[in-house]
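Archive entry: two folds, one per protein. Generate the first.
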Amino acid sequence: MNQLEEILISEEATIKVAPKEPADSSPWKGLLWAEWFAHSQLMLIFLAVWLVTIWTLPLFTHTGWILLLGLLYALMAGPVFGGSDVLEGCEEFTFALPPTRTERFAARLIVGGGTLVILSGMNLIALGMDLPQVLAGLYVKSGLIKPLPILKPGLLYSLVIALPFAIFAFSFTFSSLTHSRMLIILSWFWGSLAALSLLQIGLWYEDLVWETMNGYFGCPLLLISSFAVLLYGFFSFQRKEIGKASQPVTLPGYWWLWMIFFVVGVGLALALLTSLLKRFPQLLQP
């Protein structure tokens, strides 16, 4: 019996003094990889479109239209990154995993928003270096197209970053905080409406104060509003309740009221787009 006790004591001492292997408790690597793996197809498609556009767009229209790629990405990425759990019906399972909601929200924002910033930066670099015109030199020499003037839009360059980022911020935050699939699907529309409204207010203020559009007020207004909305979403997502089991897309309660809001929103969006398109020639001035 004494011998058995000595064996047990020696084993207990061995267990106590055994060194513990360091465990990597940081979830960031896994979260970032998961977001990339889940949405890599969308990001790679836009990268491929960017490469094709640089080579072929000078054949059809002005090279400045490659700036719209960032806008299109923001319209698609905001709802996809923000509302992926609800759209796929796995929100309850996701919230039960070890990573906190703060870490999950930040990882989605880093991957989705970072890709948008990189894509917009690539567009600005391509135009700043006149890359499309350089690549189109072969077509110009062969007589297939005529050389286009170099785009020097001034204010338009700052809007390339500010406007898509604002649309992404609004739609991403809205999609992250709602439990409705219908609202997530339409979040790109409401995000665009909010961003265009802020842009219109900024342009009106610039016309009133400086009698010209210079971006000194409009672009900072978009960026500050975007960061404020993301900050609100960051803290609100920590308190988000787990929604009911996701159901197929159906008409929400009081659907007629939502329909009125949507029709009013469409009318307001058309009015804002019409006003901005009238100002578009001024945006292209150096």
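Generate the second and append.
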Amino acid sequence: MNVTDEPVKPERLELLIHRSSPWPYILLGALFGAGIEMLVILPLDAVFRNLFEYIFAGNPIRLHYALAHLGRPGEWLTFSLTGFILGAALGFVFYRLKQNQKRLQNLRQEFEIQVAALRHHYKNLALGINGFSARARRKLEKLQPQLHNCALPDDDLKVEIDALEQSLTILAEASQRLCRTLTEELRFLKALQSNGLPPSSQDFFPVLRRAIQDLLELRFREKNIRMEINGQPLADPCAPLVFSFEPYTMEVVLQNILSNAMRVGDFIQLRVNEHNGRVRVEILDNGPGFDLEEIKRNLVSSEGHQGAESSQLGLRVTLYLLEKVGGQLFALNKTGAGAAFILEFPQQPPSHL
């Protein structure tokens, strides 16, 4: 699939929430603002006018008279209209703050559930692999003396035994690497709940290659996947692309998108370039494509959603991390002819990082 040949414009993916109507907030804010203007601001204006006339014109202080004659009808209309507009604006601001609060609460709740689930499953998986490899190795050690005692051990059998021993070694190394990855993931998940790690200027391609190699070695070892970066084989060097980013967050974002492409396709094309002051990463696969509308529906969060198997979790986490670093994610799909995800990162991180 070639993005330049696709007439459909990529659609930006965003984390959304079920939004309540802003009009109750606007109406209540407008009424509250008008009331404050009429009951507080207008009397204060009358009092200050009387004091001003006393100081500069020598008129007597008659606060009771000033409060009894609170201006002309035009002033009433001006004050009430001003309060109405300001109150409506504040009501809308309050509505947006409430929506953002709901969004953050929902994401944090879902995230904490998934952190607990990941911690449990990762630990059990690592222990299970370690235990299995240890038991298999012990059985193999018991079996080897019996094979050596055979008068004419079969050469093919010896080859199979050696291959089995090598597989057990790979399995043990994978379990150890999984334990190390678990430690790093948990450290990252803790950082994700804080203000994040500081970004620094560095070359993008080593981080990209490390993310790809980890996926190929750990998750897709049995699948023959061909990868290209800017039309060149994965092993070929690329000219450095240096910009400011936090490498671990970047690696998580890249792996979340790459793993989906590797899962459905066996030929992945990556195009990395600078576009309008941003770094643009296009990830194209030759899989069957996807239903973009279904993905967008699954990204709509609902209050009280606490399912441990929340749909599109990897995409949700990716969008959350991208939002923190000022990045964006776009998706392009052609059913039956693959899909493309387009990541964009600012060359300078937002000032709040």
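Annotation attached to the second fold: The first strand starts at residue 11 and ends at 13. Residues 73-149 form the longest helix (77 residues).
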